[in-house]
Amino acid sequence: RILQEEGIQALEMKRYDAAAEAFGRLYQKGERNIALVTGLSQAYLGQRKVAQALNLLDTEIKRNPEDRGLR
After folding, report:
1. Residue 7: how many CB atoms within 10 A of its CB?
2. Are 18 and 6 in contact (CB under 8 A)?
3. What ranges make up the beta strands (E) of the chain?
4. Spatial distance between the Cα atoms of 10 and 17, rounded to a whole number of angstroms
5. pLDDT single digits (tens) 3-28
6. pTM score, two decimals?
7. What percent of the chain is modeled with pLDDT above 70?
8. For residue 71, which of 61, 33, 49, 31 has the smallest C-alpha distance?
């Protein structure tokens, strides 16, 4: 939970590298929630890693096709 808050704060301050690191660590541990996935994709976009952001979202939509929050 603390890492997610760090990620959110880093996004707000446009510290995309720090945000991607915080969200990425949670994602690597198997955490999956809408705030985490959207935060990580926003961090990737801030880093101009568009393909990585789209890949992440595509993966999560395939994993959870009923989750309308990802669309």
Report:
1. 26
2. yes
3. none
4. 8
5. 999 999 999 999 999 999 999 999 99
6. 0.91
7. 99
8. 61
pLDDT tops 90 at residue 64: no
The whole-angstrom separation of Cα 24 and Cα 31 is 10
Is residue 17 classed exposed, middle or buried when 0-12, 13-18 and 19+ CB atoms within 10 A define those classes? exposed
Contact 53, 44 (CB under 8 A): yes
Q: Which residues contact 53 (CB under 8 A, 6 or more apart)?
A: 41, 42, 44, 45
Name the amino acid, one letter, at 45: L
